[in-house]
Amino acid sequence: MSTLSQRRWLKFKQNKRAYLSMWLLLVVVIISMVAPFIANSKPLILMYKHNLYFPFVQFIKDDMLGGNLPTEAVYSDSYTRTQINSNGWAVYPLVPYKYDTVDYFSTEPFPAPPSKQHLLGTDDQGRDVLARLLYALRLSLIFTIILTFFSAIIGISIGAIQGYLGGKTDLFIGRFLEIWGSLPQLFILIILSSLIEPGFISLLLILLLFGWTSLTGVVRAEFLKTRGLDYVKSAKALGVSDFRIMVRHILPNALVTTITYIPFMLAGGIVALSALDFLGLGLPVGTPSLGELIRQGKENLAAPWLGLTAFCVMTVLLSLLLFIGEGIRDAFDPHQEKNE
Q1: Is the whole model's pTM more than 0.70, yes or no?
Q2: For the chain, N or C: smaller number of CB within 10 Å?
């Protein structure tokens, strides 16, 4: 007889769309996390005059490679390339551009269309779109994972207190959530983003103001349902503290339902960040993001590859998260478990 977790995993695998989406998302996450190794303007390994260097993590001066300047070497420069080829060798990333590298040697006006040098073209400042897309994916995923993590902690904690204590505590928090949820969230986020200097941490805190509310009602319902069961009453009779009962006896049951919301919260975080970046109220100027690429597409209608590339990538990413969420929701559905 298989365990409950094994049955849920098998149920999830039976949903072919969700199972395939999980593996595709894993590939996307891995590729985005190793973006500096895939797209970078510096060689990964450099051998020059029998000296081994790692420009990816080392500061190599121009005069160390036969130049005349004490500044960092520019590896896209033809003279530097010639010196390296004549006196050694170098291993370059698949995309020889970083997200902020401007191709000053391009023969096309910016934004340049897709070519052999730039597979997805360049933006209006001459930066490689593919490189910016890889770094934008990494930033979006890291941001939304951190946002979802802290939102889940706050939402679960408040929902647990509300459901376990009940009474006036439940009434007070419930009324607060009704008022807080009725506020125009987008307008408040826009106002705060325009008042506070943009940054990763500040934007995270702003979005965290409303990100936690979606889990509170779910966790509250689970605690209300569970707190009256016999094993909880027995624990109280034995003198077990309320905190221990909440954490060790009730919370694991509440987390089962909470897990089904995580993919949808991740998708919501990506949309929120992209929306603020699209409006110019998100991350600092120059930071690679999906919303910033979509905004460039809007401002450069003659360069459709800018907006379409970011839009397609964002659509695929959100679709994968939603398909996974649907699969998890069906696998954890208690009604289907009873029918089986």
Answers
A1: yes
A2: N
Residue 54 has pLDDT above 60, yes or no: yes
Taking each helix axis from N to C terminus, what angle separates 129-165 and 200-211, rounded to the nearest 10 degrees?
A: 40
215 and 222 in contact (C-beta within 8 Å)?
no
CA distance linking residue 29 with residue 89, whole number of Å: 31
Q: What are the chain's domains?
A: 4-33+131-339 (1.10.3720.10), 41-92 (no CATH)
pLDDT tens for 13-37 read 999 999 999 999 999 999 999 999 9
Q: What are phi and psi of 45, to 5 degrees?
A: -135, 140
- The position carrying tokens 């989406």 is 21
Using CA atoms of 195, 196, 202, 203 in order, give the dihedral in degrees to the nearest 10: 40
Residues 278 and 117: their CA atoms lie apart, in Å, by: 27
Q: How far apart are the C-alpha atoms of 192 and 200, rounded to whole Å?
A: 14
